[in-house]
């Protein structure tokens, strides 16, 4: 009698999208024989779709600076520091932040339920609603602010794309390559902030030159600046439909989500992510308004006005530095990098306050660029910690309960995917809190300085929390045994 050994089907790379039932990236043979190509293909289309999500999410940060000139009275006088206009601008730019934060949890859970390919198609398609809605209502001069508030809220769907994209890519890569892959994926999305803040002011300026430098001309410019994204959204939809894959291994089990939500490290890391990503997205939304309100004379320099007062540079350097945080975290541990990041961010805030006191624009810009670089590095290092933490916790749990290590590894990936949604949502909500603190400080205290100093204190606290949970000596001697040798 002949016995046969059950063999897993051979894996092969395919360009066309499909459901993949057999996926084991931590197997080096599997990874080198089609797995790496498949992961890279999905990463490319994921980055493209996520990039557009961020672009639409932050579009209001640039649009509001031109709406006063377009004839909308609730933003008139923004360039002169009118407190009411500044307050309304920060309210409009913070609304997408809050909605995007709220959507990040269901968007993460949607990946296991619908598959990465299907949900990328859906999430990209949703970007058509806030863009086409804005095109219509910005050409209705009597449109009240509450309508634009609704449209700004609808733009929040772009912020939700981050969590679904990150949760999806998390399943595709082996443990030793997650930091770099998630960093690249996130950086590609974050770059949407910079490109929007560069392209939108340029197109608005072009539109006013084509028409006239009056309210109608500004409305035409805003219309062009929004319509430019539509063809790329359609390309993202078709690209995901034809080429992206969904993994059966990414299917959810309720126990993994419950474990992730009950794990204190989910909430510790979420708190840290408020300081890194919350600062990145909050200041990215607010930076054009802050530049226009604090240095209104820059608008008199034509090329500065055309470039949106250089606001795009902050998100640009912050996006580029994000993969660096993941890469260094892979080498030396994300926690060490994160502590240094928070200390540096506190120094950055002090330099910003010094530049405002001296009315020194070059120092102000350089200080903000330093802050943005550090937020990018911190975003990468914090996200690098997530899969490492849950992998170590799952191994500890498997050892204690006598579970299969392979099954524990799969559970760890699912827990990390669930945690990514929660952490991303809390971090993005931190961006909303940051903007509201600026707005309320400006209204009730007559200055944004108290809010900025509050941020500096918060960054020092976050650095201390990172050290307490992941770096202090008792950590290595067994207070947190599941993580003691995890190189978090």
Largest sheet, order of strands side by side?
A: 1-2
Question: Main sheet?
Answer: 2 strands, parallel
Low-confidence stretches: 1-6, 474-482
CATH architecture: Up-down Bundle
Question: How many distinct domains?
Answer: 1
Provide mean pLDDT, rounded.
85
Distance between the termini: 52 Å
Q: Strand-and-helix sequence, N→C?
A: EHHHHHHHHHHEHHHHHHHHH
Q: Can you tell me the CATH class? A: Mainly Alpha
Account of the 3D structure:
- By secondary structure, this protein is mostly helical.
- It has one domain (29-483): MFS general substrate transporter like domains (Growth Hormone, Chain: A), CATH 1.20.1250.
- The protein is 77% helix and 1% strand.
- The protein is built from 19 helices and two strands.
- It has helices at 28-57, 59-67, 83-114, 116-125, 128-137, 145-154, 157-172, 178-210, 215-227, 230-243, 254-262, 264-294, 302-306, 312-332, 334-358, 361-401, 405-444, 449-470, 473-476; strands spanning 19-20, 246-247.
- It has a two-stranded parallel sheet with strand order 1-2.
- Helix 14 packs parallel to helix 16.
- It is globular.
- The termini are far apart.
